[in-house]
Specification:
about 190 residues, alpha+beta, 5-stranded antiparallel β-sheet, about 30% helix, binds inosinic acid
Length: about 190
């Protein structure tokens, strides 16, 4: 299976879900080292754009995903701007600091992660969505995971994704939920 991503954190999480039944290839495995454009303006659109880019350029069936953090009190921002919320450096520390600063003194800390997987097969695209609801913590908690994991408390948890073992995050995460739908579709 070719995953049109060079994000090692995402590749690791999806590999863990697949187990040893399949070999998951990332973009580096097909000698694609370029940064794929993500300019569509929506999470769905970016997932489709990434998968189609690789399909068009390499002629390979593949899937891609795009993920956004949507914070209710911030009118669902950062959303499609999640990666570069605090600037082009895509620095997770700066991104988390910006969200925490914007929520400072706000009572409503409800947020969700949303992943859309786009699967391209012979030029046709299908999408699969996964959502996990939760809250933004008052401060960073934990060292595991990546991105915004230290400030996201999934569901009713007081522990953040960054305080969970990989299998605990994979049991409930946005990415896992989207990927399980995709696996059901593939009947694997
Ligand atoms: P993209 O989908 O690669 O554009 O990533 C969007 C942003 O969301 C990046 O800043 C990622 O670090 C962050 N992100 C994606 N998935 C997760 C996750 O599972 N936990 C925390 N942050 C994530």
């Amino acid at each position: 299976m070719l995953f049109a991503s060079s994000n090692q954190n995402k590749i690791r999480e999806i590999s863990e879900m697949l187990g040893d039944r399949f070999q998951l290839l990332g973009l580096e495995d097909v000698q694609c080292y370029e940064e794929i454009p993500e300019t569509s303006g929506t999470i769905e659109g970016n997932a489709i754009q990434k998968a189609m880019y690789v399909y068009d350029k390499y002629g390979l069936d593949c899937f891609a995903e795009d993920t956004g953090l949507e914070v209710k009190a911030l009118d669902m921002r950062p959303g499609v701007y999640t990666a570069r919320y605090a600037g082009e450096a895509k620095d997770p520390e700066a991104n988390m600091a910006k969200v925490l600063a914007e929520l400072s003194g706000r009572g409503d800390r409800m947020a969700r992660f949303r992943t859309v997987i786009a699967y391209v097969k012979k030029g046709e695209v299908m999408t699969f969505e996964g959502i996990v609801e939760g809250n933004i913590a008052l401060a960073k908690q934990g060292e595991k995971g990546f991105g915004y994991d230290p400030i996201f408390l999934p569901e009713q948890n007081q522990r953040s994704f960054a305080q969970m073992e990989p299998h605990e995050k994979n049991a409930i995460s946005h990415r896992a939920r989207a990927f399980r739908k995709f696996m059901e579709f593939l009947k694997i």
